[in-house]
User: Fold these one by one.
Assistant:
Number 1:
Amino acid sequence: MLSPLKPALIAAIPLELINFFVVGYPADPRPISTASQYPAVALQWYVFHLPGIVASDRSIYLREHGRLDSAVLFLAGFVCTAIFLTLILWLFKLAANALRKLSSPLRHAH
């Protein structure tokens, strides 16, 4: 069985691009779009970018260098999105295998 990591990494790229460049930082006074004003969208943004937010909060250097701070937030969001997608794909494969075993013709023959 193939690992769900590679498809998750590939799928995380466009999702994080949309999340970062379309949704943007929800607490920004000049939002990129109105998408960040929806509570569910803002919550997922904060959850997926939490490691980057914590790193930015702890590092004066990151706060002083906006581009580096943005790169850290993007990378944190990408990694968290990839981990989340890997988990979802793994659970889907696990459920599909369980259903396949339950519906096997050999099981009904006994």
Note: The chain has a mean pLDDT of 86.
Number 2:
Amino acid sequence: MDKDTGMEKALSPLVISVSSGKGGVGKTSIAVNMAFSLARGGLKCLLVDGDLGLANIDVLLGLTVRSTIRDVIAGDEEPSNVIVFPEPGLGVLPASSGVSDMVNLGPEDRGQIGEILGEISHDFDCMIIDTAAGIGPSVLWFNAFAGRSIVVLTPDPTSLTDAYALIKVLNREHGRKEFYLIPNMVKDEREGLQVYEGLGKVVKRFLKITPHHLGSIPRDAEVVKAVREQRPFLKSSPRSKAAEAIDKMSKAIASWMGHE
């Protein structure tokens, strides 16, 4: 039993958290497109909006949401009735937006969310949780709940600093030792590798752990266009460089589950 989640860690699907030290690094877009890519590859994927007070996955996908996880916590809705399926094999568990009481949930509420996710998880092969940015309580809890932690960052020095802060807190306070980095909005693979290696050296020096490089995503005008159109860029521009990068990372994630 995990002391942070109040649940057994061994859930049947692979649970992945996607986080970032700061906002504006493209974290949610990556989570959405990664889930879309995994579903398109034949896996049943549940995309959870873990930004409980400022949800925006439904906005990026252009979904009409009538109920959210807040309604489930309140006992007004069954978990399975809240999930929306924008694509075959891709379920979305939406959160609420502009609801302040969802931002600072206590241990009991977080434990209830863990039970809800555990209840619905068995219908899926994998679960991707798009957390809020920063090092707030819900971010740390979702990462402790997840089996694997992905951290998104950009070449911006403040992004690097905040990504390190997130990794440091998760490592020292929650014992997380494995992290998968995704440098986003880079000029090319070379810059992506430089960003990864720069943060990796600091993490290894001060925390004595070596993060993994899951892949880099180049700066791509098609991503901006897709966000404005409220569509995954894998759907609107499947041959774009960003889409190719996401597909490559999704194949690596699928291999974690024994799928090639």
Note: Strands lie at 14-19, 45-50, 84-87, 90-93, 126-131, 148-153, 179-186, 212-213, 217-218.
